[in-house]
Batch of 4 targets.
Target 1
Amino acid sequence: MPNEGDSQSGGLSKIIVTVVMLAAAFLILRFVIGAAMAILKWVFLAAAVVFIAWLFLRDSGKGSSSG
């Protein structure tokens, strides 16, 4: 009888551990995706600023050379 009780509690603990692991994996994945999106946003903004600056420099270079 005690053995059956131990196996039941062991199964319950396995279920609890599985649920906790799934919740932790979900939270970690959500955090990683959020951080990646934030980093990509800043990289995109930096690339846009560099591109716009390059356009202005290119235009100003053409203006000075033709003038």
Note: The CA atoms of residues 14 and 36 lie 32 Å apart.
Target 2
Amino acid sequence: MGTNPASKNELPTKKLNTVFLFWIISISVDPLFYYAIVINDNNSYDLNIKLILFLLVFYTVFILFRICFLVACPCSKRLCVFVLGQSCWDILAYMKMAIFCSLLAGGSGTKAFGAAVILVTIFLIFYSARIFRIYRLFMGKAKRITDQIVINLVLYLYGGHLFGGIWYAFAAKKKMDHTRRVSERNVSESNEWGIFKDAFESDIVEVHKSFLDKLLFCFRWGLQNLSGFGQNLEPSSNFLENVFVIVIVIYGVVMFTFFIGNMQMYIKDATKTWKEKKREKEEKQQEILEKWFPFTRLSEKLQKCIKEHQLKNKWKLKGDVDVENLLRNLPTDLGNNIKRELCLDLLQNVGRFRSWSEVSLVQVCDCLKPFVYAKRANIVHEGKPIDEMSIVLQGRLCTFSSNDTGSTINVSRESRKDLLKEGDFCGEELVNWVQDEPSSSKKLISNRTIKALTKVEALVLRTDDLKDIYNQKAKVIQAFHRKKKIVISGRNGQTPPGELTAPEIVVERQ
């Protein structure tokens, strides 16, 4: 299969991490050249040979490693050009170090030293321009906020590392200039140290100080003054020293402004993304809810209440909605209102429920329990007791007996009347039986089997709940008739049977 030419020119995302690591190592090593300068016991400059040899070996191995990386890993043309460009810059850094060491080793006095320092400084200025170009490349590829923050942090740390190294080199030159002036005048004068006061007080440029101590001290100095925008720096009248302080202030302000601006953009994008995901999640949840068939039969007011409760309580719906998990996550009052709207009109079509008042039917609705039957589950077995009456909200059922010849799955046209669907009942004969034999300990036996053809959602009325409602209704009716009988008997001056009368109390008047 052919490959897309456009894809070859794109920087592979998976290899960006490796290239980014190469970039960090490369820019972190260059400022270490400054630390090769030391002041020996004779108050003259010298070179840290061990550090120079280490940097020579490191650059050689690092360049070879990157070339092997290009050979071993098939890369796009753009990636190859990018990595080769990095290697060329490192070779220039290699040459820079050679020139730097030659100037120090072959020159005499502070002129050679100054030329070497200026050479490295000019090179690092152009090197910094390259860093910003690479920075823009990685910022364009970084998609996550954390990646962008890491890139900004690396650039900030690099600034502290770079300025710390330059400050160290200038501090060494400052001390040599001071030593030369003192020896020429043969006086011990108090020199204007400027921004290098910390270096002289700590003897950080002396040969006896370890490389790690120098690196950490200068790195701390660079970060501290970048963070404070150079406010604590008090330079002398030296031209280069003042230029150096100005560069630190500008770099610190630019980095701070750039970092804060990017952070605001990142926060804005993150907030926007979060809101979009939240809105999509809410819409998805509402879509799941609206796909539930019984939900469409509810009033708009009740639908709105359910959605508001869902958003307010961050109620998560997974997969399909059914009556069981819906009512379980809703308040009791809201669940009762749903059951009333779904079943109140249907109950008025069930046997003796037709003669019941709306108040009594509302009680029945409140006692309904949600239940879900699995596909092909037997709800009622022939010859077994009927314990409940079910109102079908969604799904299909069929009823059959042992005398039927039709299959429980392939129902014939003549027996289609035995199919139950949304709005139908099964076990409604339980209502008549409870009213006829409310105190009977026996159970109603089914003469048919009821089986779910699909997943069935139903609201179920248990036998015990139905008996409780009927007994309460009977007590209310009996109390009403008893009260009515008392009123009629009172009008006739007679005592109803079974009623006790209090003896008349006669009050004698004096």
Note: The longest strand covers residues 388-394.
Target 3
Amino acid sequence: MPHLGDFGDLGDSSMAVAQSPGSLVAVLVLALTSGCVFMPPPPLPGEEDLLSNVVGEPSGRGGDSSSDRSTLRDGQDSEAPGRAGDLSTRFKRGQEPEVGMTLDEIRAFNAAQGDPVDGLFSLDEALAGLPSDGELWVEFVTARGVIDCRLFEDLTPVSVANFVGLARGLRPWFDSDADTWVEGQPYYDGTTFHRVIPGFMIQGGDPTATGRGNPGYVIPDEIHPELGHDGGALSMANKGANTGSAQFFIVLEPAGHLDGDHSVFGRCTKAGVELANELANVAVGANDKPVEDEVVQQVRIVRRPAPRA
């Protein structure tokens, strides 16, 4: 079952990501089919009981999503049988990516997918036209208010470049219905928080609201020990190592079991977490999906003055 978080440890020997001179950071991507659900793993056994005792099960929450809550993703050996061979002919367009690809495999897979930017999208490109001074923030505008989170552009440049590029309509993404790559159109505006669990997290970033939607590619993980899944963490959803793409989640209470599997690339304010908690307690149906759509009207990327020391 997929994990949350998305952008793994770029320092890992099996999937190191090259950084070009200056601030240009390559976002390596690979195409992704829609057959797998992207989501954070559920609380670990015992941890869920604790959350239930603390938060309580709100009235109106329906549907049986026990399979989603009790299954963690299976690991996959990067040296599994059948992974050797000529990388130039190994991958085909539309092929589902393998979990835990090495950097060379990611590059080869991406080359077969027809991405307009060849899998390279830099932080400079994502931030084009924004002021250079101040902290980078995202504002999720909803009918309930604004959830605002600071983005860690220095520690997680790949994740931030991808997220900001999609939010601003600067990073091309694949429209599977039209069978074409879209440019110049914001990806997140009008999407919903399609999965919410009180005391755990709220998840969004899927235009299909099914948990299976994606922008047609994935990016490598960026895991940093100092960036844990504490309350307020903004992290990438995935379905295994190096499979994150666009879906994200906001952690409501500490969820340390997600550390090392998902890329934390931002942190939300106390007020933002309070609003996310309110949203997490709405009535839901199957798969923890709100009965009434909780729409992200707009995702704004802004600079704010850094606080004085």
Note: The chain has one domain: 47-74+88-304.
Target 4
Amino acid sequence: MVGLFEMERIQKKGETTPLEQSIATILNEIQAGSEEGMKKALTNLKITGVKEVSDNGLKVVIVSVPYKQIAAYRAIQGFLVPELEKKVENSQVVIVGKRRAFPKEPVRNRRYVAIRPTGRTLRAVNESLLDDVVYPTAIVGKRIHYDLKGGQTTHVILDQHDRTRVEERLAGFALAYNRLTGIRTVFEVADH
């Protein structure tokens, strides 16, 4: 049975999954058990979907939030993600904004020229998802490695100042980003 507060927390058309309901319940529990400033910050925050990805014993829970609320989630992410990881057992939690890429218009069908915003291109959406996955760590470099068979692997280099906090989460970042975009990625921490 889904409570009223859980339904208010989930902003989605159609049926909700049990995982989405459990994350909404956990968010409500965190809101009820936290201090006044955190309660106010968590009051109007919603989720749009939750996915669970697992590979080789590693589980990652990807929480999608509305694009307009990603700044509010980032303000409290340092407190919220560890609390979610305590409640969701043996899982790494990643919060990403729900973004949508507009398709490219074919040249032959351009009767009315509509300009596609730069932020809605596939590349911009993938870059924004990459920033969301590794937030609050800064990305200091990125390389694309092409192998002889035609495949490519993206190497993302993260800031060395966050080494202690991020080092055990690198495999989870790669798993989440691969599931969201389909791009094979390796995350590393800068050496110097």
Note: The chain has seven helices and six strands.
